[in-house]
Design goal:
Layout: E1 4-12, H1 19-28, E2 34-36, E3 46-49, H2 53-60, H3 71-84, E4 96-101, H4 124-134, E5 142-144, H5 150-163, E6 169-176, H6 181-188, E7 209-210, E8 212-219, E9 231-240, H7 253-266, E10 276-277, H8 284-296, E11 303-305, H9 308-311, H10 318-332, E12 334-335, E13 351-352, E14 357-358, E15 363-370, E16 374-382
Parallel strand pairs: 3-7, 4-5, 4-6, 10-11, 10-15, 11-13
Antiparallel strand pairs: 1-8, 1-9, 2-3, 6-8, 9-16, 12-14, 15-16
Helix pairs in contact: 2-3, 3-4, 5-10, 7-8
Length: 386
Amino acid sequence: MNSIYTITDNIITSLGFTTEANFNTLKEGSSGIAQTFDPKITTVPMYTSLIDSEMLKNEFTQYGDGFDYTRLEQMMILSISKALKQTDIDTKSHDTIFLISTTKGNIDLLENRRQNFNHERVYLWSLANEVSKFFKTPNKPIIISNACISGVSAIITAAHLLQTGKYKNAIVCGGDIISEFTPSGFQSFKAISANPCKPFDVSRDGITLGEGVGTLILSTDSNLVNDKNPVIFRGGANSNDANHISGPSRTGDGLYFAIRNALAEAEKTNKNIDYISAHGTATQYNDEMEAKAIALAGLENVPVNSLKGYWGHTLGAAGIIECIAGVHSIKENCLIKSLGFSELGVTVPIKIVDNFYQGEIRNFIKTASGFGGCNAAVYFSELNAD
């Protein structure tokens, strides 16, 4: 099987418009979460992580007219463009496939705030078409929308497409915005925290929503690789615990199956994991379930972090931007502390990263879980890692 290389990437969140800006802020332990009271989003003050609209507008002007694209389309086009600047990949080639990950897409168009778009623009396939059309790709884009595992699932799908040999390059972009619709569903479950989220902590009381977009470019073409020891995708898997439409398995078995199968595809064991980038939403049920899954996989002594305390839960972007952060943790040999954590609040004793750590990191596993009982896991490592 051909190696699947991570070629370039980009992250856009409240922390900045480049991967470097975001990762440096993660290393500093600073958060982009702040209290906001925007009547277009919520009727009460709420902690969120929002992308600066004026900065987005200014950044996008070099790529196109903002009136031609929705806010999310601008974010995605900008992120992909920034990632492509670092490589010679030809988006007009039949060798390149686009995959778009989102949970809500252009949901804000239903709120009648932008009248210059036709009604089809709210559909997810239309969003994917607009983004890929900007880059003049000849291939039909693939849209992945599977709750909060969308980003991780998109990476798995991209890798499996590359393994078929039909494509050489995959541009995986995931993103979501916060509109009036986005928090309303979580509020109905009483799942939004009144404070910045605290994943795995004893005082956690819900999620913090965030805006974000991430782009990860994968390829089987070794000529595109600039690193002497590049980070590669080795395996991934999806599962479903079939427990409840909005509640995860109480035993963690569904996520455990995803971890087990991802390791099997990577031809690795639970002895080959330096750290776990957890989903860690800071809801009572998710974090408890995830801790149980980690223990079922025999990984309770492996360092675990959640990055939601920095940029919130970015939904369709989460799996992608958190995988990118994991890739850069390998490249920079460091572990980012799990912001908001002070005391373990799950019944299974897992090892939460509570301080920034500098040391050899050669591989990691990324987990994700979402509504409908869906779970996913991916495994990345250095090319020459054991």
